[in-house]
């Protein structure tokens, strides 16, 4: 019985390895630092850590791996930025928190205090993350116009850049396409990344079978030897009784 359980455990573990590899590779954070002049669609986003003004906790770009991320660069004096907050609010209400994350980044690091930015955000009913650009992200992303929106996929690759007020339907289509691409991940990617396991697994099965058969043979042999010894002891005992 123990031998069968051992064999099944080996086969089950071997069969799960490709899927463990698949899940691990799909959730591995791979954000890298980019040079500003090289930022383009398909590149990984820049990782950063800034204090979120509402919660006073540090948040990082890598914290949102697995979600579609919208970075919104704004300033308090920017009328189009304020207009865009309504669009972002609609997007934030439309999608669940497990699907997207919106982060508004104020570029007035040396001009406005944290308290002023927080009051501005409250006045404009911003109910998503807001940070102040104290690490010059606007420069790193070569932001020349505000508002500017950077949309990243779940692997934190840049999908689209929008400058100026961008309507709800345009942003929604980009987000929907990004979410759909993730849900409809081609199976070919899985096979191409894990083909070698399907070569190894048959060998694991063969080796496990050999071990199982060999172990059964040893157990059977030990059983027969014990039975033989017991029979010999019984025969000797009978002889002793007859001699008496």
Describe the secondary-structure layout.
Blueprint: H1 2-27, E1 49-51, E2 58-60, E3 68-74, H2 79-94, E4 100-106, H3 114-123, E5 129-132, H4 137-140, E6 148-152, E7 158-163, H5 168-183, H6 187-194, H7 197-243
Parallel strand pairs: 3-4, 4-5
Antiparallel strand pairs: 1-2, 3-6, 6-7
What does this structure look like?
The longest helix has 47 residues, at 197-243. Helix 1 (2-27) packs antiparallel against helix 7. This protein has 2 domains: 2-11 and 196-243, no CATH class; 31-192, Glutaredoxin, CATH 3.40.30.10. The chain has helices at residues 2-27, 79-94, 114-123, 137-140, 168-183, 187-194, 197-243, and strands at residues 49-51, 58-60, 68-74, 100-106, 129-132, 148-152, 158-163. It has a 5-stranded mixed beta sheet with strand order 5-4-3-6-7. Strands 1-2 form a two-stranded antiparallel ribbon. It has 7 helices and 7 strands. The radius of gyration is 32 Å and the shape is rod-shaped. Mean pLDDT is 81; it is low at 18-37. By secondary structure, the protein is of the alpha/beta class.
